[in-house]
Design a protein that fits this description.
By secondary structure, the chain is an all-alpha fold. The chain has nine helices and no strands. It has one domain: Multidrug efflux transporter AcrB transmembrane domain (Multidrug efflux transporter AcrB transmembrane fold, Up-down Bundle), CATH 1.20.1640.10. Helix 1 runs parallel beside helix 4, helix 2 crosses helix 7 and helix 6 runs antiparallel to helix 7. The longest helix has 37 residues. It starts with a helix and ends with a helix.
Length: 202
């Protein structure tokens, strides 16, 4: 156990560093990379709770499950940002990013379109791993400790990813679009432009 603990002290940081580098190579943006990394610990909430309920101690199998969970969560986070980027890009191309409310609506469209793929990913993984939790025989104890954190983590990951990524993405994009919003509001005040309804009535 002492020898395994020493190895884990090296393997876990190297794994996290590898995930970080791969995320950057995929997104080509440190901001997006850190958005994914900052939201990843939320998937560990369900993993820790399920380990607590099952009375599992930290072991090599549990660490393997947690590392696999972080990898899956990073992958789903990349897809979430992809859907948000697509919705943001389409809204900007169509000229529908004139104020913070329209920015929020565009981000909500991207998040909602990710709901079905995210649900299918989480459901497939949990259904595939559930039989391991009822397995009995040689090696089943180790496999249960690998599967448990992944099952618990996917539950909270499914919920929190939809609640965490969109607000963080909105904060990031609202800062980059702040000048545009101010310029548009300033143009409206300077030119004294009438609301759309008033212009149509006239």
């Amino acid at each position: 156990m002492a020898r395994v603990t020493e190895r884990l002290l090296v393997v876990v940081p190297l794994t996290l560093l590898g995930v970080l580098v791969l995320l950057y190579l995929n997104t080509r943006s440190w901001t997006k990379t850190w958005l994914i990394v900052l939201a990843m610990p939320f998937s560990a909430v369900g993993a820790i709770w399920l380990l607590y309920l099952l009375d599992y101690n930290m072991s090599v199998g549990v660490w393997v499950g947690l590392i696999a969970l972080m990898g899956v969560d990073a992958g789903t986070g990349v897809f979430m940002l992809l859907y948000l980027d697509l919705a943001y890009g389409e809204a900007k191309k169509a000229g529908r990013l004139r104020n913070p409310q329209e920015l929020r609506e565009a981000i909500m469209i991207g998040a909602v379109s990710r709901l079905r793929p995210k649900f299918m990913t989480a459901a497939t993984m949990m259904i595939g791993l559930m039989p391991i939790m009822w397995a009995a025989g040689t090696g089943s104890d180790v496999m249960k400790r690998i599967a448990a954190p992944m099952i618990g983590g996917m539950v909270t990951s499914f919920l929190l990813e939809l609640m965490v990524y969109p607000p963080l993405y909105e904060l990031w994009k609202s800062r980059s679009e702040a000048r545009t919003f101010l310029a548009r509001s300033g143009d409206g005040r300077e030119t004294g432009a009438a609301p759309p309804v008033a212009r149509q009535a006239s």
